[in-house]
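haha ok so turns out i had the wrong file open the whole time. this is the CORRECT one, sorry everyone. sequence first:
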Amino acid sequence: MGTPYLQRILNQQLTNHIRTTLPGLRNKLQAQLLSMEKDVEEYCNFRPDDPTRKTKALMQYADSPHVLCCLYSFQE
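then structure:
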């Protein structure tokens, strides 16, 4: 058996791992890219004085885990 055998087996395992993992990684990255492109498109039309934008930003901030954690700590 020896080193060449181990090298061949490990290389095959790595190749199989890459083949099984790569499609999922590719899909995840494409979804993130699409999400970012939508965000960029939304910010191209951004108006600082838009009240709906302010409301949405406040709601997103209020729903963040950091704020929820602080509110929970404050109630105790």
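The chain has two domains: 1-45, 47-76.
again sry for the mixup
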